[in-house]
């Protein structure tokens, strides 16, 4: 039986600790920045490449706020209502990926309005570039020994520190492969074929909702919430059903909008030197 023993700290410099979890997020954002610039150069994303850093900043801030908001008010309000001083204590844990998606949607909307590009175009580009980040984030969860799965006797079972003596599903790896790698590959196969904006974000929302719903059968439910509807459904699955419905609506909305994809980079004006 595998018992992963990976030190979550890469190295320390005095009181400063560099952790694998944070490093994984940095890797995801660096790759996303590279892919966004590629999409801009190809003309899929109608911005100048220099604007990519602005989009990443919008996404990073809004993702954090959304992830924290959902965790506090949906997943664990009973605790935080009695401990208001811990509302921003993220170093103690507490971020929701469903909330992160909602936050990114808001950040992309603000970026689209500010830069006069369509929201569907921004969301499509963000999904193509950012989906791979889910893989890195889940690897960080795995190294931290958190968000582990339910007890199992399958050959995939692993014993996680702090999760008791029994083997559990490595649900972080399941999520990383399904929601991160496989969904990322699906989106980039579509990139070569689909010519309507909005289908990428719709596929991402629908695909993530379906994959996460399945993985929830192997993942340990949040201890403070438990199960709903007679002990069969988790909060994660309830939110996934909402995502699936929203994904289907997004397909309908995108088809109705019919924003055609044109691979024409916007011209970058060169400023002539003063005479």
User: In which order are the strands of the major sheet placed?
Assistant: 1-2
Binned strand content: under 5%
Shape: globular
Largest sheet: 2 strands, antiparallel
Domain module tally: 1
Number of helices: 9
Can you count the beta strands?
2
Average pLDDT confidence is 88
N to C succession of SSEs: EEHHHHHHHHH
Helix content: 55-70%
Radius of gyration: 20 Å
Poorly predicted runs: none
Task: Please give the alpha-carbon distance between the first and last residues.
Answer: 74 Å
Category by helix and strand content: mainly alpha
Report on this structure.
With 275 residues, this protein is mainly alpha-helical. It has one domain (20-77, 94-257). Helix content is 57%, strand content 3%. The protein is built from nine helices and two strands; from the N terminus they run E-E-H-H-H-H-H-H-H-H-H. The chain has helices spanning 20-42, 52-75, 77-80, 97-115, 119-130, 132-144, 171-191, 199-215, 235-257, and strands spanning 9-13, 16-19. Strands 1-2 form a two-stranded antiparallel sheet. Helix 2 (52-75) packs antiparallel against helix 4, helix 4 (97-115) packs across helix 5 (119-130) and helix 7 packs antiparallel against helix 8 (199-215). The model has no long low-confidence stretch (mean pLDDT 88).
């Amino acid at each position: 039986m595998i018992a992963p023993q990976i030190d979550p700290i890469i190295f320390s410099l005095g009181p400063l600790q560099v952790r694998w979890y944070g490093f994984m997020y940095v890797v995801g954002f660096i790759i996303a920045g590279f892919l966004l610039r590629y999409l801009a150069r190809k003309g899929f994303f109608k911005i100048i490449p220099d604007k990519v850093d602005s989009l990443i900043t919008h996404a990073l801030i809004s993702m954090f706020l959304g992830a924290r908001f959902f965790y506090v008010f949906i997943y664990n309000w009973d605790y935080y209502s009695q401990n208001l001083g811990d509302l921003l204590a993220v170093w103690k844990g507490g971020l929701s990926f469903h909330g992160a998606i909602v936050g990114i949607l808001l950040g992309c909307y603000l970026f689209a309005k500010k830069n006069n590009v369509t929201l569907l175009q921004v969301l499509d580009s963000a999904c193509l570039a950012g989906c791979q980040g889910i893989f890195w984030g889940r690897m960080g969860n795995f190294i931290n020994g958190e968000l582990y799965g339910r007890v199992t006797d399958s050959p995939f079972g692993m014993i996680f520190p702090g999760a008791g003596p029994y083997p559990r599903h490595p649900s972080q790896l399941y999520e990383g492969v399904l929601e991160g790698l496989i969904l990322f590959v699906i989106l980039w196969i579509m990139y070569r074929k689909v010519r309507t904006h909005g289908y990428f974000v719709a596929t991402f929302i629908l695909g993530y909702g379906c994959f996460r719903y399945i993985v929830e059968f192997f993942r340990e439910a949040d201890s403070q919430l438990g199960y709903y509807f007679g002990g069969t459904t988790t909060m994660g699955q309830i939110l996934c059903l909402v995502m699936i419905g929203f994904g289907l609506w997004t397909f309908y909305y995108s088809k109705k909008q019919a924003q055609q994809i044109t691979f024409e980079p916007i011209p970058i004006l060169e400023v002539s030197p003063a005479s």
